[in-house]
Amino acid sequence: MNRSPRPAADTVLVLTEPGDTTADLVTAELDRLGARTVRFDPGDFPRDAEIDAWFDGTWHGQIRGPGGTADLDDIRSVYVRRPSKFAFHPGMTDAERRFADREARRGLGGILMSLPCAWMNHPARAADAEFKPLQYAVAAACGLTVPATTITNAPACSRDHAARLGPAIVCKTLASATVVDGDHVAHVWTTPVTADDLADPRVAHTAHQFQQRIPKTRDVRATVVGDRVLAADILIYRADGLLDWRADYAALRHEPTALPADVEQALLRTTRRFGLTFAAADFVVTDDGRHTFVDLNPGGQFGWIEEAAGLPIAAAIAEELTRDLSANPSPEPTGLSLVPGPQPGSVASPERGPISAM
Amino acid sequence: MTAAPMTDTADRFALGTRNGEITPTAQPIADTPATPFALSLRAPAIPADGSIATAGPGFTEKTTNGGRFVDTSFDL
After folding, report:
1. Cβ contacts of B32 within 8 Å, gap of 6 or more
2. Which residue among A171, A247, A280 sits closest to B56, beta carbon to beta carbon?
3. pLDDT tens digits for range B19-46
4. Rounded CA gap, A58 and A114, in Å?
5. Is residue A158 within a helix (H) or strand (E), and if so which, with residue range?
6. Residue from A354, A178, A342, A325 nearest A262 by CA
7. Over the stretch A206-215, which tens digit does the pLDDT of each residue have?
8. What is the pTM (predicted TM-score) of this model?
9. Residues of chain B with C-beta less than 8 angstroms from the C-beta of A298
10. Which chain A residues contact residue B15 at CB under 8 A?
11. Which of A24, A197, A248 sits opposite B52 (nearest CB)?
12. What's B15's DSSP letter?
């Protein structure tokens, strides 16, 4: 929930781990604006941090940690970046640790979520927005074009799915592309597949997402901060082309750009519908300039593209965290609705012809 | 509070190895009858030094306070 802060509230609470240099970009901008910033990592709780609060109709008290002390009455906004997990006494049993974790989450987390302040992003709103199937439905209702998509564990239905998706198909994860196996970390990038692959019996082992492959000529990363959209072209310099730009960062060049006005407005409707004040959205662009929404990440990284493309994202975040919310309050989400907006979107046609070489 | 100095901007988002070993391979992550189909796909080949592999979700930032690498585990 986003609510207007108390008039005297002057503190921005930054929830992140100590080594988060991207948060440093924002805290430097907050310093420049004269805001009081307290950095707090839940990973310090409860061993090196304290919550001490009481309730008399609203919550009062303090949270105290290595990054400083914040009076609950003074918090005007909470910036959720990369908070680490609670760390408990090493002598606890697994059962004790699970109990302590639940209590800490409901206690510390519950008090923070009760505060009459702005969030970037509220954890519940961010959690909603993590679901890609919901993203597609909301984005399409808000006017964005979304690739034809199938989510299935029914290989027996592969012919129907292939017909819906057209001749060029990709397999794409629904959650993180990172797979951790012991000390090894691998990535499952968006990968071309054939219609026959949809009939692989191992599709039955879990939900799989298959999408129409869009014949893109470039990618766009659009970072939403409040009502602002800061966009950059992601251009791939590799002879064999690249379907998923995350697979080869060294082959990329970044240039600032602007979304077409109708796409930008549809994207902002999407983030507002989710109640997000920050999101990193990806688009692919075809040679006719058509922008197709890929997905959005409510906690997406931005430090790399701020520097690569010269986008003032950290400054925009700092301004959003300190703006006069009482004069221009953030929308308070009342639950997601899929009622189409004024410019309903579409599902991209699978009859787009052959895939062009990158 | 600002935790780290704003110097060394060229290094601040340098790519490095994640805590743990990156698997720089064009091979499937796994490939058995029990493997979900998506994990059986071949990932694009990436350089063996792992530096590019870490540019995806979970890439690593270099801190400016002591120059050590810290896995920030973020998603792009």
Report:
1. none
2. A247
3. 334 444 456 677 889 999 998 887 654 4
4. 8
5. helix A158-165
6. A342
7. 999 999 999 9
8. 0.82
9. none
10. 249
11. A248
12. -
